[in-house]
Amino acid sequence: MTTLADTVEALTRRVQALEDELAIHRLIVSYGLAVDAGDAEAASETFDVDGVYDVAVGTMRGRGAVAAMVRGAKHQSMVGRCAHQIGPAVVDVHGDTATAVGYSRVYLATDGTVGLYRVSTNRWHLERRAGRWIVVRRITRLLGREDTLMPLAGS
Amino acid sequence: MTTLADTVEALTRRVQALEDELAIHRLIVSYGLAVDAGDAEAASETFDVDGVYDVAVGTMRGRGAVAAMVRGAKHQSMVGRCAHQIGPAVVDVHGDTATAVGYSRVYLATDGTVGLYRVSTNRWHLERRAGRWIVVRRITRLLGREDTLMPLAGS
Amino acid sequence: MTTLADTVEALTRRVQALEDELAIHRLIVSYGLAVDAGDAEAASETFDVDGVYDVAVGTMRGRGAVAAMVRGAKHQSMVGRCAHQIGPAVVDVHGDTATAVGYSRVYLATDGTVGLYRVSTNRWHLERRAGRWIVVRRITRLLGREDTLMPLAGS
Question: Which of B53, B123, B155, C72 is deepest in the core (most CB within 10 A)?
Fold first, then answer.
């Protein structure tokens, strides 16, 4: 027989799953907002201390490497002119680990004209640490390359 | 007087509504990921067996027709170069049926340059079948045509 | 000791927070669907009666001003050819007030070709009124201008 306590326990698990899904969407989107604002600390803190960002331009290992990229001359020259827009993505949570698979686009304004700069496929591997979701590995590949489908595989 | 059991029952309905909304977002987004990966089975299974995909290029009736389009030479020539990005959309659930209204965009990489290929308005009609949401009809129209607003009507 | 009633009360607050977040996403997205359909009433009703829409082209004060823009010749000439796509955004709820920070893009079809017309940063300030979320102030800035980052500040 299902008691009211059992029902509430099952409901608690369902609410947790919904919170996890929304938290992960928020986390991956907030990376884009942070880099566009030039905020190296906020951007790098969406990653685990040892998190890996494996992207077309090279692989960044650890928060320090992500922060250095944001603080670098190339990125800083784009702040105010770039928009890193993330999603749509599909999030899949398994206990304290999760994956998200989806797209990202970068827009760039140059001489008053805005254009599409990059479109990429992405796979994020996430873990829950002390109740907070964090990216342990993000794999990003440009559209139209040999390895474009790699982040989508297994989705 | 509201008993604790009543409160839990009301809460269960609210949690179900949240789960439905997120499941539908996930479903419509996953169609794009599947076609971009060239996965005819996964793409067609977002539709009901008799589901209809009424799109500018023609109307596909049933999963077989959707799968055939994905397996077709035209689509296969774009796999790895195309990104079908779906949303933002507004989901409206009524019991075991739902609609979603929103945008889709297709990006295409050609000779190393990525561009916007199509922007469309969409209306998805969905049904819950054995606890799983499924598309029974998707109506998609290109921007800037006589029938562009048709999928938005009633939204 | 935590009673079952306490647990249910805590769960109710978590469900409310999830509903708020999804309702706000739906509201800000629905503005775009409404203006694209040329529906001045639906678009203006996403704002409070005295709501402010502070956007690059000028500041609209009150629902009447938003509705007048939608009914205006310039906007009406774009209906059926424009798509106002909103998000991704990050929503932050505090009781009966909330903010959302994120991107919007406008696409425009001209002579059968669709292009990116505008990319903007946005901050929405929202309030819950009689159980319904409403925009009290939306600040929108174009990418690549001096004030682009202003809506992102504090995010």
Answer: B53
SS3 A96: coil
Identify all chain C residues contacting A25, using CB atoms and an 8 Å cutoff. Answer: 88
- CA nearest C143 in A: which residue? A81
Do B138 and C20 contact (CB within 8 A), yes or no?
A: no
Q: What is the DSSP string of A35-70?
A: HHTT-HHHHHTTEEEEEEEEETTEEEESHHHHHHHH
Q: Residue A11 burial (CB < 10 Å; 0-12/13-18/19+)?
A: buried
ipTM of the complex: 0.95
Instruction: Please compute the mean of the pLDDT values over residues A13-31 and round it to a whole number.
Output: 98
Cα A152 from chain centroid? Answer: 14
Upstream peptide bond of B88 is cis (omega within 30 degrees of 0): yes
Other CB atoms closer than 10 Å to residue B1's CB: what's the count? Answer: 3
The structural domain count of chain A equals 1
d(C-alpha B103, C-alpha A80), whole Å: 26
CATH code where residue B69 lies: 3.10.450.50
Report the C-alpha gap between A46 and A69 in whole angstroms. 14
Is A13 part of the contact surface with chain B (CB cutoff 8 Å)? no
Please give the residue of chain B at the shortest CA–CA distance from C19: B18
Segment B18-77, tens digit of pLDDT: 999 999 999 999 999 999 999 999 999 999 999 999 998 789 999 999 999 999 999 999
Preceding amide of B151 cis, omega within 30: no
Q: Identify the bridge partners of residue B129 per DSSP, sorted by sequence position.
A: B132
Domain around B8: 4-153
